[in-house]
Design goal:
The chain is of the alpha/beta class. It has helices at about 35-50, 65-75, 95-110, 130-140; strands at about 1-5, 10-15, 20, 25, 30-35, 55-60, 80-85, 115-120. A four-stranded parallel β-sheet has the order 7-6-1-8, with helices on both faces. The chain has a two-stranded antiparallel ribbon with strand order 2-5.
Length: about 160
């Protein structure tokens, strides 16, 4: 069984920050794994630990600095990670939901997961549309705000 977990890096602003033009100065930002995606990674790892032959793969869309987010997911127990990026994308944080879902769907089609987990929303913009848009593109069922998951691999996911 393969579980694909979507993860996002989110910016946290220092208590004391500087403005640069119309934005917060990059030096005042610290990036971290989205809290809601952290829960999804943890659930996938727990499923992997409780069952034989389960691979956990995380996927993120982001620039080189997102490598730290990828490493956080790997440190929590994910087996592999995929980072999608092209300089033509410029800033992942400004990509619309459809574009993010299209990029993530391409990875999912390549990975062929049995289950896809995502956080309920992003901590930086409170947008919760990417997971449902991805499920729609893949033809997967979708459930929101899942607090617990009992896996019955004999009956299917």
């Amino acid at each position: 069984m393969k579980i694909l977990v979507t993860v996002k890096e989110v910016a946290e602003v220092d208590d004391e920050f500087r403005i640069s033009g119309l934005d917060i100065d990059e030096a005042s930002l610290e990036y971290d794994l989205n809290e809601w995606d952290d829960y999804a990674v943890e659930e996938a790892v727990q499923i992997s630990e409780a069952n034989d032959d389960v691979e956990v793969v995380t996927v993120t869309v982001g620039p080189e600095r997102a490598e730290e987010t990828v490493r956080m997911a790997l440190a929590k127990g994910a087996d592999r990670a995929v980072r999608v990026w092209d300089d033509a994308l410029e800033d992942a944080q400004f990509l619309d939901v459809d574009t993010k879902a299209e990029l993530l769907a391409a990875v999912a089609e390549e990975e062929e997961p049995d289950l896809v987990l995502s956080g309920v929303q992003a901590g930086d913009d409170a947008n919760g549309a990417t997971g449902v848009a991805l499920a729609d593109r893949l033809g997967f069922e979708w459930a929101a705000v899942v607090n617990s998951l009992d896996l019955d691999s004999d009956a299917g996911v």
